[in-house]
Design a protein that fits this description.
alpha/beta, 7-stranded mixed sheet, 6 helices, about 30% helix, globular
């Protein structure tokens, strides 16, 4: 039977909406490695900052954009409702937080339960929250890393999809460590999103805090 585009037997498209607040380097990695490939499409990019460079990257890729500045709404709940309605209007399968710095309200998270993923610059549960890199350096940690996880109502407490460790070399400058972490993010984040899109990731029925990986499933 023809699909909505009139193509018989065309496989379904897995649609992402990316939320970003800043330069959008992780968004660019997603666009470069996933968008338009293997049935994955970035359907939209939203931001809480109209001046975010991420929006320019999206427009260059021909992706729809929308902005939701906090000051345009009476409260966070109203903003999140408008943002959620926009996301739903794009037939979104997965919401991707790529440097989105605005706090999301519980009703938003509940609406997209197990369909929101985030990347965090540490080996969670170590160093959650803001300035994870600074936390690791201040603690004198021997290693840090990158974690991709589902988002729940806690602070970086959702089920982990993928992690990669990064040694903290003696005397390393913060800028060097940040560059190493970003390089890993740009590889690991698209890889983990691709796993979700292919159905290789599911939440354990007996433990909602645990992810089961079924590669090739």
């Amino acid at each position: 039977m023809p699909d909505a585009n009139g193509k018989a037997g065309a496989p379904p498209v897995f649609r992402l909406v990316v939320l970003a607040s800043g330069t959008g380097s992780n968004l660019q990695a997603i666009l470069d490695r996933l968008h338009g490939r293997d049935g994955i499409e970035v359907a939209g990019v939203g931001s809480d900052r109209p001046d975010a460079k991420a929006l320019d990257r999206a427009l260059e890729a021909g992706v729809e954009t929308a902005t939701f500045p906090r000051d345009d709404f009476p409260d966070r709940e109203t903003r999140d409702l408008a943002m959620a309605d926009w996301i739903d209007s794009l037939d979104t399968d997965l919401v991707v937080l790529a440097g989105f710095m605005a706090l999301l309200t519980p009703p938003f998270i509940s609406r997209f339960r197990n369909r929101i993923v985030n990347v965090h610059p540490s080996l969670l549960p170590l160093f959650p929250g803001l300035d994870a890199i600074g936390q690791a350096l201040e603690a004198g940690a021997a290693e840090t890393g990158v974690t991709v996880h589902f988002v729940d109502e806690g602070t970086d407490t959702g089920p982990v999809i993928a992690q990669q460790a990064i040694p903290i070399r003696s005397g390393v400058e913060r800028e060097e460590l940040e560059a190493e972490i970003h390089a890993v993010e740009h590889q690991l984040f698209p890889e983990a999103i691709g796993m979700v899109a292919r159905g290789e990731v599911r939440i354990a029925e007996d433990d909602p805090g645990r992810v089961i990986i079924e590669r090739g499933g």
